[in-house]
Amino acid sequence: MIALSINLNKIALIRNSRDTANPSIPQHAQMCIDAGANGITVHPRPDQRHIRVADCFDLASMLQVEFNIEGNPMTGPRKAERANVQDYPGFIALVKEIRPAQCTLVPDDDGQLTSDHGFDLKQNGEQVARVVQELQSLGIRTSLFMDPDPEQIRLAAQTGTDRIELYTETYARAFRTGDELEHVFQQFVRAAEVAAEEGLEINAGHDLDLNNLPRFATIAGLKEVSIGHHLTVDAIRMGLADTVAAYQYALGVG
Q1: Which tens digits make up the pLDDT trace of 111-163?
Q2: Number of domains within the chain
Q3: Catalytic residue at 97?
Q4: Residue 70 annotated among the catalytic residues of the structure
Q5: Is 81 a catalytic residue?
Q6: 6 in Cβ contact with 244 (< 8 Å)
Q7: CATH number for the domain including 240?
């Protein structure tokens, strides 16, 4: 079975648009779980524009499913930019204190609207490997955000990571436009094959939705997908419980 981990960033973004605790992040997480989600994902950024440090601790205290925290391992402490928001301690410091089941390392910059590229491990493979080892020593499963590049995936295996998360934006765009869809899809098929050859498990995420997910879910060895933006938008139209069920159906469950 392919696990569905729901990213709550957009729910936090709605909350942060007002000085309120509504919607509650833990309550929304529980609603997702009750509807059939297999895990919860958050990606706290240093400016805390959506998920905040406090949300991570709140979720850690109540989740009975897998908790996945994403972020750039090189990001250090930041002072909070808003009143009544605690300072950002740095990504690795946050993860070490919470110790989620999985930590997905992502090479995003502070100012990025969203994650838009995988690691270049020719440049920083040794640094990433040290982070991987540190997290694994705490019992945290590691995953590296990667483009579907066989050479880079082989370098990912050399870091000792447990998994990679394939960055699927190029597939989603090709599916939407029809431009070279088969060629792009086969890039991901080959990337998954290389990962399996190297002993890596495979996650995937970014712009996956109800239309493009069924085909992507046929890729051999896929363990988990992390979906937030499109699932949140669909929930506005369809309701949360029906939306989670629809995504599970798209993954071949039910």
Answers
A1: 655 666 789 999 999 999 999 999 999 999 999 999 999 999 999 999 999 99
A2: 1
A3: no
A4: yes
A5: no
A6: yes
A7: 3.20.20.70
